[in-house]
Amino acid sequence: MARALFCLSLCVCGIVVASVVTTRVGEYIVSDGDDLFFPQMGTPTTTNTTTSNNNTALNCSVLGDLREWVSPKEVWHNMSDEELMWRASMAPGVEEFPYERKAKVAFMFLTRGRLPLRMVWERFFHGCDRRLFSVYVHVQPEFVGEEEIPPSSVFFRRRIPSKPVQWGRPTMVDAERRLLANALLDFDNERFVLLSESCIPLFNFTLIHSYLTRSSHSFLSSFDDPRKSGRGRYNKRMWPAVTLQDWRKGSQWFEVHRAIAVSVVSDVTYYPLFEAHCAPPCYMDEHYLPTLVTKTHPARCANRSVTWVDWSRGGSHPKMYRRRDVSKGLLDRMRYGGRCGYNGNASEICFVFARKFDASALEPLLSSPGGGSSGMEPCVRVAPAPLFTRCHPTLRGE
């Protein structure tokens, strides 16, 4: 009898334990598992008579979550480079967006430290629709100057997780890809322009935004240089993925369409070859992107840059413009001194940015000896509106 009672007790205990375990596992699978993939939206508690109201509230919740996902407000995160590239390489299979999308231009600053010409850019962005642009800054990790940037600045908290960069090394391209990947997390970013701390805009925001977003091409210089500093840098170990006929050279400072940006961050074919076989005197930042775009998106490339730079003196660095160099004549030559193609037509506006400008050039770029509403007329004249003025109210949101 005692043995029978003992066996019965064991059976009862087993049933109780199994019931508890099943319940906990079920909760984990149904609840916690869903949390990994679906946002928590809560459970409607109202009666069936208010179903339509519930659906409206639910749709608003979904839309709010979608906007936060497609256009994140914060740029700081804890993703590794590998995780970041994987996340940024995602591209929608449906071309039409399920919300009203305004094409943004992502201004990506690759800097060593503080931005000496920040006030030029602050004036450039002042009063413009923030739905039309975004700012990203890659800086050396040891830099600690963010406290100088006020909360009202377009640069406030726009520093992305960064790593050390060495001139002429693959780390330079790593930084460029890192900037592109972070900017791609915002699905509203349509055009991506790489800038340095020595760059300035040559026109007002409205003109530049229109020039870039309405172009059917990306602006990246890519050419076949037969010299030792071009084809002479090609390494046969890249064959057959990259042949000598594929090899291209171009300026580091690019502007690209979203489709090209996705190709850059998702590239696992050409990047490893360049990283392994393009070391000084082969400079990866001069060859990787021009070659990649020639291989993957040749029809989208305008084969020219929109950033003015003066290499006429030769050497490994272009001319630096200082305080004494800044004049209306200089800036007008940069703006209107060329002739190029734009969407199949001839254009006198070929450059919308310029470099390299020293920190001493800040005052003459901002000063206005002759007065005027824009504060720039004596030095800068731009059509359709003066440089660095507010966005024209009738053009906002176009």
TrEMBL record:
GO terms for cellular component: membrane. It is a single-pass type II membrane protein. It is found in: Membrane. Pfam families: Branch. PANTHER family: CORE-2/I-BRANCHING BETA-1,6-N-ACETYLGLUCOSAMINYLTRANSFERASE FAMILY PROTEIN-RELATED, GLYCOSYLTRANSFERASE. It comes from Acorus calamus (Sweet flag). Keywords: Glycoprotein, Glycosyltransferase, Membrane, Signal, Transferase. Residues 1-18 form the signal peptide. This is Core-2/I-branching beta-1,6-N-acetylglucosaminyltransferase family protein. One of its GO terms (molecular function) is glycosyltransferase activity.
